[in-house]
Amino acid sequence: LLCSGDIGFGAKICYDLEVWLPGQQMYREISSVSDCGDFQARRMGFRYRETLPVPEGKKGKAKKVTVHPHTLNGSGLAVGRTLVA
What we know:
Elements: E1 13-21, E2 26-37, H1 39-44, E3 48-52, E4 63-67, E5 71-74, H2 79-84
Antiparallel strand pairs: 1-2, 2-5, 3-4
């Protein structure tokens, strides 16, 4: 879990995956995943239409709403560090 000063512009929260490297006697990052909420979807205009069910006991049509999905950004594994670990 990173502090707010270390995460990217659009990220709500960021997790780093670190492993212990015995040769360096320290932990090193091998991957990172950020939850960007709907920030990126709004910026690129990505959305989908969702149908909300009609509540029980009420009559009428189902309501359709436009939703911006939440996105995740993840880096691949740093192969060299992963093999060493």
